[in-house]
Each structure stands twice: as structure tokens, then as C-alpha cells.
Amino acid sequence: MIRDGLTALGVSPDRILLDTESRDTRENIENALSLLSQQGITPTQAAVITDDYHERRAGLLLSEYGTTSIPVPSPTPFRCRTASIMREFVALSAYYLHLD
């Protein structure tokens, strides 16, 4: 789990906010912003740590909430890269067509 990796790197557990409820990218962004708001934080910029192919859409969605994305891409494993990019193409198309 990412939380375990962060704490192993020395990040204090009380600085980590977990979203355990989201089912998609939009919900994840909404929940993350809500968690930050509960801490009295309204970010104008936020690091978005996600797969490299997914950064564009995540940043677009985040901008809808008035927050600028600072992309921190993670490499996608080669074995699932083609399927992931194809899925993201469909998701981006739905976004631009306002179907999401």
C-alpha cells in the first residue's frame, strides 16, 4: 500500500489522509479535496500522483475544482500499458464529449 511506502520513507502517518470510498477518478478528486477541506486546507495547487497515461485526465478533472495539477507520473508496467492507454483514450473521449 502507498501509505506503507510513504511511512517507510519517513512521512509521519498523521500527515497521510486516506480516501477509501472513491470508485473513479472524479470521486477520488472530490474525496481528496473534501479530506483536505476537513483539515482547513483549500489547495490552489495539488500534486497528482498517478499512472503516466492518466495524468492528463486527472489534471483536467482537478482543474474543474479550481486547483492546478502538479503532475507526478508513475510509469505503467509494460504488460498492461496498451490496454491502459486504450481505456484512457475512451475515458478522455467521454470527458471531452461531456459523457462522464
Class from secondary-structure proportions: alpha+beta
Strand percentage lies at 5-15%
Total number of distinct structural domains: 1
What is the approximate shape? globular
**N-to-C CA distance:** 28 Å
Radius of gyration: 15 Å
Low-pLDDT runs: none
Number of strands: 2
Q: How are the SSEs placed, and which strands pair?
A:
Elements: H1 2-8, H2 25-38, E1 45-51, H3 55-63, E2 68-74, H4 78-96
Parallel strand pairs: 1-2
Can you characterise this structure?
- The chain has 100 residues and is α+β, with helices and mostly antiparallel strands.
- The protein has one domain.
- The chain contains 4 helices and 2 strands.
- The protein has helices at residues 2-8, 25-38, 55-63, 78-96; strands at 45-51, 68-74.
- It has a two-stranded parallel sheet.
- The protein is globular, with a radius of gyration of 15 Å.
- 9% of the residues are buried.
Main traits of this protein?
single chain, 100 residues, alpha+beta, two-stranded parallel sheet, 4 helices, globular
Q: What's the short story on this structure?
A:
The chain is an alpha+beta fold and 100 residues long.
